[in-house]
Write a structure and sequence with these properties.
GO biological process, one term: actin filament organization
Radius of gyration: 24 Å
Protein name: Thymosin beta-4
Oligomer: single chain
Function: Plays an important role in the organization of the cytoskeleton. Binds to and sequesters actin monomers (G actin) and therefore inhibits actin polymerization.
Order of helices and strands: HH
Shape: rod-shaped
Largest sheet: none
GO molecular function: actin monomer binding
Structural class: mainly alpha
Organism: Chrysochloris asiatica
Length: about 45
């Protein structure tokens, strides 16, 4: 009985309401940024 209830709820579930945006917590620096930091460190 319980399994049938779960199936009904699963079928009613609306995936379009889910938030799918992902934000990197600690993104890697771009190659340009790395080069700028290298040059600043050499000075």
């Amino acid at each position: 009985m319980s399994d049938k209830l779960h199936m009904v709820e699963t079928e009613k579930f609306n995936k379009s309401k889910l938030k799918t945006e992902k934000h990197e917590k600690n993104p890697l620096p771009s190659n340009e940024t790395i080069e700028q930091e290298k040059q600043a460190g050499e000075s």
